[in-house]
């Protein structure tokens, strides 16, 4: 039931995408909720997602290939971001940065506290995350805090998982772990290996919550970084939490050891008063 609601929302979002001309950036981002057409695979603990030619293999910790997803015939389902209460859902507010250098991002860390549960209960689905994407926008890797029921599960509570989406082909996740209001979350995406060609290996995890990590190998270099509030199915402002979420200790390091000065580009949902603000100390605050 809920999945089909999300599916129709995603279709609406996809249909409306060309009209989203007010969006300041042309880069189209992947949206977990827009990928209802792709199959979802929970990667067992200790397993990994491996790009092998035009296929994606899910490999168990013991090395057995337990699932193969062909990407050759994938159909791009990329949506540009939609803003505003309830209409289509999508990225509501975010801070984004494109690494302008040829030196790859080595790590993207941040931490935040699980917000109070929203007062409104309207089957809404909220996602708060940091993420990396390749310049093509074809994939996204993200440690995600969700409220509500996603395709991975959940309910009227907060829970966390790492997600890797490969556009039009598949969605790969860790298992979903419930978390408590007020709990501290340490989120980290790390480059853990490179070889020749498009063969970068990354991990995504909540460093203080076991079972929330995934490993992706053979991926493209991830050059886009973002901290984002994404939401679906809202019907009233109290479907958001009260107050704000501060992403503190936000840092991006490059493989040469440098921590570049980040000029975040902000996109807000001005109509609903949902905004992102970067503080002098580098923390990023999303206000509801
Ligand atoms: C390897 O792990 C998978 C998934 O956990 C399991 O189904 C399979 O039986 C294991 N194979 C061996 C040889 O241990």
Keywords:
single chain; 288 residues; mainly beta; 10-stranded mixed beta sheet; 9-stranded mixed beta sheet; 19 strands; globular; disordered N terminus; binds 2-acetamido-2-deoxy-beta-D-glucopyranose
Topology:
Blueprint: H1 2-16, E1 39-42, E2 48-52, E3 55-59, E4 65-70, E5 90-98, E6 105-113, E7 125-134, E8 139-150, E9 153-166, E10 170-173, E11 177-178, E12 184-194, E13 200-206, E14 214-219, E15 222-232, E16 244-254, E17 265-267, E18 275-278, E19 284-287
Parallel strand pairs: 1-10, 2-14
Antiparallel strand pairs: 2-3, 3-4, 5-15, 5-17, 6-12, 6-16, 7-8, 7-15, 8-9, 9-10, 9-11, 12-13, 13-14, 16-19, 18-19
The structure holds 2-acetamido-2-deoxy-beta-D-glucopyranose.
Could you please describe the fold and organization of this structure?
This protein has a 10-stranded mixed β-sheet with strand order 4-3-2-14-13-12-6-16-19-18, with no helix packed on it. Strands 1, 5, 7, 8, 9, 10, 11, 15 and 17 form a 9-stranded mixed β-sheet that branches. Strand 13 (200-206) and strand 14 form a beta hairpin. It contains 1 helix and 19 strands. The radius of gyration is 17 Å and the shape is globular. The chain is 5% helix and 48% strand. The protein has one helix spanning 2-16, and strands spanning 39-42, 48-52, 55-59, 65-70, 90-98, 105-113, 125-134, 139-150, 153-166, 170-173, 177-178, 184-194, 200-206, 214-219, 222-232, 244-254, 265-267, 275-278, 284-287. The two termini are 28 Å apart. It has 288 residues and is mainly beta. The site of 2-acetamido-2-deoxy-beta-D-glucopyranose has 5 residues, from loops. 2-acetamido-2-deoxy-beta-D-glucopyranose binds at residues 44, 60, 62, 64, 66.
């Amino acid at each position: 039931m809920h999945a089909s609601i999300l599916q129709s929302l995603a279709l609406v979002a996809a249909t409306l995408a060309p009209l989203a001309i007010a969006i300041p950036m042309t880069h189209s981002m992947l949206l977990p909720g827009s990928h209802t057409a792709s199959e979802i695979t929970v990667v067992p603990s200790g397993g990994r997602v491996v790009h092998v030619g035009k296929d994606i293999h899910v490999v168990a910790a013991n090395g057995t290939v337990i699932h193969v997803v062909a990407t050759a015939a994938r159909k791009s389902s990329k949506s540009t971001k939609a803003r505003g209460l309830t209409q289509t859902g999508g990225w509501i507010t975010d801070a984004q940065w494109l690494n302008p250098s040829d030196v790859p991002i080595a790590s993207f860390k941040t931490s935040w506290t699980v917000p109070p549960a929203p007062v409104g209960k309207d089957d809404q689905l909220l996602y708060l995350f940091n993420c990396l994407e390749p310049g093509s926008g074809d994939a996204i890797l993200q440690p995600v805090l969700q409220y509500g029921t996603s395709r991975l599960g959940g309910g009227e509570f907060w829970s966390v998982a790492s997600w890797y989406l490969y556009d039009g082909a598949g969605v790969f996740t860790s298992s979903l772990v419930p978390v408590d209001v007020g709990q501290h979350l340490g989120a980290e995406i790390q480059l853990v290996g490179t070889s020749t060609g498009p063969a970068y290996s990354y991990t995504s995890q909540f460093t203080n919550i076991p079972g929330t990590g995934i490993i992706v190998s053979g991926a493209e270099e991830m050059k886009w970084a973002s901290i984002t509030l994404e939401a679906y199915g809202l019907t009233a402002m109290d479907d958001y939490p009260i107050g704000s979420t501060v992403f503190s200790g936000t840092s991006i390091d490059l493989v040469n050891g440098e921590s570049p000065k980040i000029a975040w580009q902000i996109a807000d949902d001005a109509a609903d008063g949902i905004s992102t603000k970067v503080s002098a100390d580098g923390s990023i605050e999303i206000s509801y």
